[in-house]
Amino acid sequence: MTMSTFKKNITIALLLLGSSLTICQAQEHLYPFEEKGKYGYIDQNGKVVINGKYSFADQFYEGMAVIKENGKKGYIDQSGKVVVAPQFDEAYKFKEGFAVVKKEGKWKYIDKTGKIVIESNADYTYNFYDGTARFQKGLKFGYIDKTGKEILPPTFEAAYDFSEGLARVKTGNFKTGKWGYIDRSGKMVIPANYDDAFEFKDGMANVRVGNEARGKYGFIDKAGKWVIEAQFDKANQFSEGLASIRVGDFKTGKWGYIDKTGKIIINPKFDQAMPFSEGLASVKVGQGREGFWKYIDKNGKVVIDKDFSFPSDFKNDRAFVKIGTLKSGMSAYIDKKGTFIWQGSK
Questions:
Q1: What is the pTM of this model?
Q2: I need a surface site. Which of 118, 139, 252, 303 has the fewest CB within 10 A?
């Protein structure tokens, strides 16, 4: 899978996740919904506040959301006002005040007025994180700053966004190379010793030593020292003080949660486990199509015992879920008691 394809897949997945963002106390939290192919927005009580009239509507980020009309994408604010007219072939969320758009085959960055602030000649561009953004030329990756200046040339086989001052990059062959971490000068501050590596969060990053089938995951600090030794068959990033880990192989292994010392807090007993958000995490009980998602608290207790085919993180006390099949099931939003706030038609 190319990085471009990966980015597109992520964008498609985001359509399912529901949305909300705190702008200020005076503004409402809005969530996209879809009915009969038209998208609009509801408030936290499930009331329609922006009618379903768009062919696409994304989450709100930094007070703006991507919408699509007549085959082109633009942006609205939380009052429903079109702030940037639909004119782009591609448009992504606002991050750190800028958004990536594509028009007439060219990638650009715009501000919240729609003004073009950076013109790009890259084959693909990405959002800003920590004041820097990735770009891709051919199969190589580099980085720019917010003035559009190239701070690191496209020399990396694979590279991801900066997080907490460091970015994970791959050296050597794309298939057999190793992952390490660079700073903004391009210096490799954590040697490329890992077979897989992920972003830093709360001062720690999850990494893997060994191949995907038999390798082990652990956590390192920004000096590259082991905080939690590589011992898990899979480990995800920490969220709200806990990280989901898998004990056993991909097919039969079970998921639980550890704290930042590596101690198992919730025993591995779930078939899948997602990060905690606002005190709750979605976990899967049962394999494949026979399995369903529920929500647990930090004690591992199931607090929303309903059978969802698709879950999402809670944001501002609401989560997007699906009941029935992913393709033809019913979409809904729930609160933390599992009460349906809004339900779509089947």
A1: 0.86
A2: 252
